[in-house]
Each structure stands twice: as structure tokens, then as C-alpha cells.
Amino acid sequence: MRTITGSLARWGNSQGVRIPKDVCELVGAHVGDVVTMDVNEELGELTLRFSAARQTPTFRRRRRVTLQELCEGYEGMRVGEEWDGPDVGAEVVR
User: Fold this and answer.
1) Domain 9-50 carries which CATH code?
2) What is the phi/psi pair of residue 68, to 5°?
3) Half-sphere exposure of 26 (CA within 13 A, CB side)
């Protein structure tokens, strides 16, 4: 049994503890796995159990998409010099 320390941090309106990658590898946990939390109020203990079978898809980084690919098929108004239209908005600096 190994003891590893961490700290509780604010995560939006909740709190979270980051689990180091090597610890996840030891227990076979992956991003998107379902975790069951057992709480022992008397002892102030929290036990995490990761499901062996994945019930949610894992996170996968997708390839980078160019601006041209994102705008393919767009038929709306085009603005900005790079789109052969007028520059508009407060972001235009001359």
C-alpha cells in the first residue's frame, strides 16, 4: 500500500483532488471512467473505486482544424479583410 498526499482545490462550484498519472496507471483508471465513492463519516474516510468497464467514452484529442475547414459551407455574411469583406467592430485598430 502506498500513501500519496494531495490537496483539495476549488473546481468551479465544487472541490476536486487531482490524481497523478502514475496513480491512475497503477489502478487502471482513465479519463471518463465511472468512479464510485464510499464515505465513512465516522472515520472521515473517502474511498474511490474505478469501474473496470468503461461506461462513458474516453477523451481523445482531435486533429487540429483550420479556419477554412471550420467555415466550409458557411453562407452567412463575411467580414474582415481575410474574407474579402469590410473590417468591423471595436477590435479593428488603425
Assistant:
1) 2.10.260
2) -65, -40
3) 10
Q: Please state the rounded mean pLDDT for residues 66-87.
A: 75
For the chain, give every domain's residue range: 9-50
Confidence of residue 76 (pLDDT cuts 50, 70, 90): confident
* Grid coordinates of 33: 471512467
Mind listing the pLDDT tens digit for each residue in 22-73? Answer: 888 888 888 888 889 999 999 999 999 887 655 555 666 677 888 888 888 8
Q: What is the 3-state secondary structure (H, E, C) of 24-83?
A: HHHHCCCCCCCEEEEEECCCCEEEEEECCCCCCCCCCCCCCCCHHHHCCCCCCCCCCHHH
Q: Rounded distance, CA 32 to CA 58, Å?
A: 5
